[in-house]
Amino acid sequence: MKIRFTKICFFLVIPSLAFSQLYNTSLENQSPVLASEKNQLSMDFQSFSFIRNNEYFNKIADGYTLFGNSISPTIRYQPSEHFAINTGIFLNKDFGNDKLTAVQPIFSIKVQRDSAQFVFGNIATNQHHRLIEPMLNIERLISHQQAYGMQYRIQNGHKTFFDFWIDWQKMVYKGDNAKETFLAGINLNKKVFEKNNFLLKIPFQATFKHRGGQIVIDTARLSTEMNFATGFEAFFKTKNSFFKEFIFQNYYLVFSDKSKTKPELSKGNAVYLN
Where are the domains of the chain? Predict the structure, then answer.
């Protein structure tokens, strides 16, 4: 049996004004299915410490602070070269609160062939989707650390990144007042040109959030919110020891709300430049 310890410390202090997109791939916790780990039983312990201080001095929003720690001990068994089962528990503790704020089971089935991976159960969420922050708030890394559903990913170096997922957020039963809720998304980032120290990628991102259900009491107030983003990403590597690389990320975003009862803001667009 192999024991692995993973420690992720995340300290984030956000000022009232932000001027750039954070490149958050360093926060990802990759868990591939490796042929070399066939028939192995392993234990994994992850710890995530966070502090986020939101201070607002105008009418944007109320200020608040997120400060705490979460742990995820898991057991993983890989019966074959391409198949793995992972199970465990997720615990979250907000400092200043005597009780645990989250106790959730962890269970996932992974199937992997080369650079393609299918996950059913606990999916790789938040920063693993690699969406720009207007599409998915980075604060979900603290407030929504677990997601349940299914996911299909392809990761081939810097050539291709593809992620399609369904995050089933709210289950409903006949006669419930609550709405069935799920978030689906897709991210395709494809290299289209590379020469010397220059790299060009074309991204396409989309999210769909649906609230509804045919067996709930109120079937009239259904909503489907859609967000789209596309543009280009350019990377320039330099020979300078201080400025090693320049990255330009430029997106055009579109929002549309297809709810039956039209909200005040049902559509919009924006330009997001870095």
Answer: 1-111, 157-274
